[in-house]
TrEMBL record:
SMART domains assigned to the protein according to its UniProt record, in alphabetical order: HATPase_c (SM00387)
UniProt GO cellular component terms: plasma membrane
Main location: membrane
Transmembrane segment boundaries: 12-29, 41-58
PANTHER family reported for this sequence: HISTIDINE KINASE, PHOSPHATE REGULON SENSOR PROTEIN PHOR
Membrane topology according to the record: Multi-pass membrane protein
Gene name of the encoded protein: bceS
Subcellular location: Cell membrane
Signal peptide from the UniProt entry: none
Catalyses which reaction(s): ATP + protein L-histidine = ADP + protein N-phospho-L-histidine
Pfam families, alphabetized: HATPase_c
Protein name: histidine kinase
Keywords: ATP-binding, Cell membrane, Kinase, Membrane, Nucleotide-binding, Phosphoprotein, Transferase, Transmembrane, Transmembrane helix, Two-component regulatory system
Organism: Alkalihalophilus pseudofirmus (strain ATCC BAA-2126 / JCM 17055 / OF4) (Bacillus pseudofirmus)
GO BP annotations listed: cellular response to phosphate starvation
Amino acid sequence: MIRTFIKERISWIFLIVLLQLLGLFMAYLDPSLSLESMLYYMFLSLVISSLFVIIRYFRETAFFKELDARDSTTDITTLPQPNSPFEALVYDQITSPVEQLEKEASINQLLLEQEKDELLSWIHEVKTPLTALRLIIDRTNDPTLKSELMHEWLRIHFLLDQQLHQKRIPFIENDLFIEKVDLEPLLYSEIHTLRSWCVKKGIGFDVELASSEVLTDAKWLAFILRQLLTNAVKYSEEGSEIRIQSSVQKGQKILTVADNGRGIGPRDLSRIFDKGFTSTSQHQDQHATGMGLYLAKKAAAPLGIHISVQSTVGSGTTFTLTFSQENQFLQIQGV
């Protein structure tokens, strides 16, 4: 701080020193001026100048130290008030941009909230014709055409579902209802939704639930399972089987979803939960959004669910959901 203060006022210091040297030079040239008197005057002026600089240093640095201590979110009304015209100028230069930025941030926040509400409203509006389309597909007599239409309907349905939950996740704490949930009907409901896709690919399910009751939110757990099952069906080979098993290990409920698909490469395994990441080995896959697993991971955190994955290229992938024990879950929720 001292170095900065001196650096900014070096021209003042040079001017003071120059005036002292000028007086000494005049006393040397003019015999009528006493050298002793001039030296006495120089001494007094240097003392006064030094005191002035020291006083200004403490006053001005105190002001700027207070400014440095404030973070960018500080209300401008709490900024230290200026004690001099110089400080008033600096104060205006700081507060004016801050006021403008706060105003712009408030407007942008309002626009984002409005955009979110409009998008959620649009999604709900689209669900009505989508439901009507499903009824029309169900009345289609051509099995091949019905299968193709149902596959495309599922893609639209899941994309809308992802978008809806993506907008809700930032406020997930307001939407949670924790209760004891039976996994069996939840799983079979999600499997039933995928039935036409599974029939088309000849994919079956092997479900073994040694422990089927968990403490969680049914709606958000269903969303997480939907992402895992959709991925499993999408990347499984035709005629393969998806295994779903539950168990209890060290007092914790564990649910695994395993497929026999193409698997995930080692360089991709640590990135599959990143937002927007699809694949480095299958980059030509235009249908992947890179959002499903990211949203599943985001939704699992407030529920106290840990998602892990193991995979071997060409042999399949296993996702594991580890549920918190009841007392651990209550600690996570702050109860």
